[in-house]
């Protein structure tokens, strides 16, 4: 999907405040509230963006959040797809460097994290090694990088 300047401006407005009203966005970008609503719906339907509440899992009662670096043998896509199916995984990225994949996981306890890594992640065919980086405190999380 090619984005025009108005769509980009709408996205930037929502990156600043995902609860901003369509009427307020319309005033900034020069469209009616209905036109903004339609554009936002098209952007969501096309997969360009999603509007969600971003939380800190550690503040919501989850004991552990971690990034897991994964080394893979063979094709990466099937492993990435299998990881994406795990309920505890909220982020999967294919990378260049020391690890083939990085996944972010959220666990209810240390025991749950151990089970997730040992019984779920390491048993996926193609996974040859993992390294876990446990989060101690979230200092910054932002999604306001704008559009190009």
UniProtKB/TrEMBL annotation:
<keyword id="KW-0804">Transcription</keyword>
<dbReference type="InterPro" id="IPR036390">
    <property type="entry name" value="WH_DNA-bd_sf"/>
</dbReference>
<dbReference type="InterPro" id="IPR000485">
    <property type="entry name" value="AsnC-type_HTH_dom"/>
</dbReference>
<dbReference type="InterPro" id="IPR019888">
    <property type="entry name" value="Tscrpt_reg_AsnC-like"/>
</dbReference>
<keyword id="KW-0238">DNA-binding</keyword>
<keyword id="KW-0805">Transcription regulation</keyword>
<protein>
    <submittedName>
        <fullName>Lrp/AsnC family transcriptional regulator</fullName>
    </submittedName>
</protein>
<dbReference type="InterPro" id="IPR036388">
    <property type="entry name" value="WH-like_DNA-bd_sf"/>
</dbReference>
<feature type="domain" description="HTH asnC-type">
    <location>
        <begin position="3"/>
        <end position="63"/>
    </location>
</feature>
<dbReference type="Pfam" id="PF22482">
    <property type="entry name" value="AsnC_trans_reg_3"/>
</dbReference>
<dbReference type="InterPro" id="IPR054609">
    <property type="entry name" value="PF0864-like_C"/>
</dbReference>
<dbReference type="InterPro" id="IPR019885">
    <property type="entry name" value="Tscrpt_reg_HTH_AsnC-type_CS"/>
</dbReference>
<dbReference type="Pfam" id="PF13404">
    <property type="entry name" value="HTH_AsnC-type"/>
</dbReference>
<dbReference type="InterPro" id="IPR011008">
    <property type="entry name" value="Dimeric_a/b-barrel"/>
</dbReference>
């Amino acid at each position: 999907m090619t984005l025009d300047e108005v769509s980009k401006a709408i996205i930037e407005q929502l990156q600043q405040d995902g609860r901003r009203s369509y009427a307020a966005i319309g005033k900034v970008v020069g469209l009616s509230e209905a036109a903004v609503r339609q554009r936002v719906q098209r952007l969501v339907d096309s997969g360009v963006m999603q509007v969600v509440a971003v939380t800190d899992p550690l503040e919501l009662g989850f004991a552990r959040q971690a990034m897991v670096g994964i080394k893979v043998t063979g094709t990466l896509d099937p492993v990435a797809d299998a990881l994406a199916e795990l309920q505890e995984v909220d982020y999967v990225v294919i990378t260049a460097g020391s690890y083939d994949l990085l996944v972010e996981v959220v666990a209810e306890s240390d025991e749950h994290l151990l089970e997730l890594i040992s019984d779920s992640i390491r048993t996926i065919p193609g996974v040859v090694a993992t390294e876990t980086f446990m989060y101690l405190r979230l200092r910054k999380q932002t999604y306001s990088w704008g559009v190009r």
